[in-house]
Amino acid sequence: MNKIAVYPGTFDPVTYGHLDVVERIASLYDKVYVSVAHSKQKKPLFSVSERVEMLKCSVKKFKNVEIEDFNGLVVDYAARKSARVVVRGLRMISDFEYEFQMALTNRKLNPDIETVFMMPNESYSYISSRLIKEAAYMGADLSAFVPENVQKKLKEKCSDE
User: Fold this and answer.
1) Which residue range is the domain that position 88 belongs to?
2) What gap in Å lies between CA 138 and CA 158, rounded to an integer?
3) Tell me, what CATH number does 19's domain have?
4) Which residues pair with 86 in a beta bridge?
């Protein structure tokens, strides 16, 4: 039986923290779908296709990782992919309450799908996409936080506005 996991998020933009979690998941599962949520309520800076493209460029070295976008409930998406596991990243204790509520709700919606929490390396635990976007607007050097392809897209996007 193949072990398949789904790692959903908005990835607006993808950070080294996200990529650290992808690497950890890829070492544990046969197939990993990194799934970009449409998430209009979060008002992302990048379009879905831009986020998918940045991720594809950032995860090329992982042969068992596929990047897709999805709309709707993550448990429905995971079921369509034959995944029994949804992986959620936890950076700080402040993330836990929301993630715990979401995991319990997802369990109620589909008890066959488990939620697994994964922590990034502690050197990435403070990085958030929101803070990266704020720093980008201020012209900060982002090389310690995001891959080069993402830095370029952030620079383009933040200079356009």
Assistant:
1) 4-160
2) 9
3) 3.40.50.620
4) 6, 115
pTM score: 0.93
Residue 4 near residue 104, CB atoms below 8 Å: no
The DSSP code sequence of 17-73 is HHHHHHHHHHHH-SEEEEEEE--GGG--SS-HHHHHHHHHHHSTT-TTEEEEEE-S-
Are 44 and 10 in contact by the 8 Å Cβ rule? The answer is yes
* pLDDT tier for residue 39 given thresholds of 50, 70 and 90: confident
* Token duo for residue 48: 């879905």
Q: Under a CB-based contact definition with an 8 Å cutoff, are residues 18 and 60 in contact?
A: no
Residue 161: pLDDT band with limits 50, 70, 90: low
Give me the number of domains the chain comprises. 1
End-to-end CA distance of the chain: 49
Q: What would the pLDDT profile of 65-100 be if each residue is shown by its tens digit? A: 999 999 999 999 999 999 999 999 988 777 788 899
pLDDT attached to residue 2? 83
- Active-site positions read 18, 42, 91, 129
- Bond preceding residue 44 cis, omega within 30 of 0: no
The H or E element containing residue 89 is: strand 85-89
